[in-house]
Amino acid sequence: MRALGLGLVLCVAVAAAQAQSSLQTRQSQAREDRTALKAQIEALQKRIEASESSRQDASTALQASEQAISDISRRLADLDARHRALAASLQTLGAAHDEQAAELERQRQALARQLRAQYASGLSPWTALLSGRDPQDIGRELAYLAYVSRARTATVEALQTTLARLAQLRQQTDAGRAELDALLTETQAQKGALLEQQAQRRVVLAQVQSRLHDEQQQAKTLQARDARLGTLIQSLDQEIAAAEARRQAALKAEAERRAKARAEQARREQQRLKALQAQRAKAAQEAQQIREQAERHLRQGAPGAEAPATASAGAAHPSGGLSADELAATPGTAHDSGSRVARAAEVAQAPSAADEPAGVPDKGFAGLRKGLPYPVAGEVQGRFGAQRPEGGVWRGIVLRAPAGTAVHAVAPGRVVYAHWLSGFGNILIIDHGQQYLSVYAYNQALLKQVGDVVARGDVVARVGATGGQVEPGLYFELRHQGAPINPQLWLR
Predict the structure, then answer these.
(1) pLDDT-derived band of residue 302, with 50, 70 and 90 as boundaries?
(2) CB–CB of 229/421 below 8 Å?
(3) Cα-flanking dihedrals φ and ψ of residue 398, to 5°?
(4) In 271-373, where do the E strands start and end?
(5) What is the pLDDT of residues 369-397, one digit of tens each?
(6) Is residue 360 part of a domain?
(7) Do 386 and 476 belong to one domain?
(8) Most exposed among 129, 276, 385, 407, judged by the fewest C-beta atoms under 10 Å?
(9) Mean pLDDT across the chain, nearest whole number?
């Protein structure tokens, strides 16, 4: 019994050691695959960065200079219009002044004629009263004198009004001339500023002209940028496919190993059961022989005391071992112990979750389906396949959103790229399986690293304006088998 127990313990120990070795081998293989994938991605990034070329851009200075020239030109046009209006107003004021001066002279002459006529006729209120003439004649003369006085008073008032109007016209004319002089001064200053801006623009144009060959390569640079991203994604597809093939091969090899182990265990169990059955049959046969021998002794008339003794002696195993009942019970016990060994080995050899990150399905990710959520809420700019203003075509869309806004994964997957890329800034790429990739660029911050497994809706980045962008937003692409696909047909 002790030998049998020791054998069972040794079997359990050997099975556990084999299972642990298998688990460590699989875990080490998974880690080596992940390390190799990261090393290949980093090497690819270094090759891309080594092929980048920098150039200076004078478009901002040129834009500022041209806008300043436009503003000064508009200001000069306004000043010229005001100058013409003031000149016309001064001409009108001059004509009105001349007209009022002529009216003043006419009124003066009329007043002088009235005074001379009154003096020549000798008409005076006191003269009429002291003349001693007929009172009716005196009344008529006084009435005439009153009329003459009223006419003279009206003439004098008109003369005063004319003088006031002339003074006002002179004041308006002087103010107009002063404003005209100020406009002329301002015009000269604006013209000087315009000449300065034009000179500055000539300097900027000379700088742009000195780098003309770089500007002519702008469209090619944009195409090269798209090609770099395509090369990156193609390389990632190859690496992902290779990693998936290695993972499936490891799973298949492990499954085959477990199947062989189970088959070998079943074969051994079957052999053991056959041996146990043979032992049971042999023990039963020996017990039958002993009973038959005891019955013969009893029929031959042996003493009553010898029959039990003989029966007792015959009940023992000829070899001095266990009784038939014990032999019948022992195989069952061995069978139960063997079953426990098999179950312990099977549990020890079960696959461990440490081989793959949490959340990775056994058969890999299922790819993408239409009806995906938007990675960030915002105004959509750009139309897939349309020409970009700076050259090239739109391979994705831009979602305008405030800086720092959370960027969400559109589907489950594994992060296969998280780094800075020229023209795209901080960029993150997620593999969704079945050769589907999603691209998130212009980010302010990347919150996931290569190898991280993400679920749908997980926050993976923050909206920013990296990669030379002016306004914050998220550049989003979807790719299948390395080719860009229209994201708006897949987003709900």
Answers:
(1) very low
(2) yes
(3) -115, 130
(4) none
(5) 999 999 999 999 988 988 887 778 889 99
(6) no
(7) yes
(8) 385
(9) 75
Is residue 370 in some structural domain?
Answer: no
- Identify the weakest region by mean pLDDT among 186-190, 297-301, 395-399: 297-301
DSSP string, 440-475: EEEEEEE---TT-EE-TT-EEEEEB--SS-SS-EEE
Question: What amino acid is encoded at 156 in this protein?
Answer: V
Please state at what angle helix 2-50 crosses helix 218-299, rounded to 10 degrees: 170
Pair of tokens at residue 23: 């688990």
Same domain, 142 and 278: no
Name 428's bridge partners: 418, 440
pLDDT (tens digit per residue) in 65-109: 656 666 776 777 777 888 788 788 878 878 888 888 888 888 788
Q: How far is CA 368 from CA 64, 385, 491, in A?
A: 46, 21, 11
Rounded CA-CA distance 52/74 in Å is 43
473 in the same domain as 342? no
DSSP string, 45-107: HHHHHHT-------HHHHHHHHHHHHHHHHHHHHHHHHHHHHHHHHHHHHHHHHHHHHHHHHH
Nearest to 439 by CA among 417, 456, 466, 422: 417
CB-CB contact of 486 with 384 (8 Å): yes
Contacts of the segment 193-196: beta carbons below 8 A, 24+ positions apart: 193/72, 194/69, 194/72, 194/73, 194/76
Q: Using DSSP, state whether 429 is helix, strand or coil.
A: strand
Q: Which of 210, 235, 268 is the last residue of a domain?
A: 210
| CA angle (450 as vertex; 223, 31 as ends), nearest 5 | 130
8 A C-beta contact, residue 342 and residue 410: no
DSSP label at residue 373: P
CATH code assigned at 106 = 1.10.287
Burial bucket for residue 476 (CB in 10 Å: 0-12, 13-18, 19+)? buried
Q: pLDDT tens-digit profile of 103-152?
A: 888 878 877 887 777 667 665 665 666 666 677 776 776 777 777 778 77
Cα(295)–Cα(451) distance, integer angstroms = 81
Mark whether 223 and 200 lie in a shared domain. Answer: no
486, two tokens = 């229209």
- Domain of 309, in residue numbers: 2-53+218-352
Q: Tell me if the pTM is above 0.70.
A: no
What is the count of structural domains for the chain?
Answer: 3
* Pair (442, 302) in one structural domain: no
Rounded to an integer, the average pLDDT of 432-458 is: 96
Number of neighbouring beta carbons within 10 Å of residue 474: 25
pLDDT at 313 over 50: no
My answer on whether 176 and 198 are in the same domain is yes
Predicted confidence (pLDDT) at residue 172 exceeds the cutoff of 70: yes
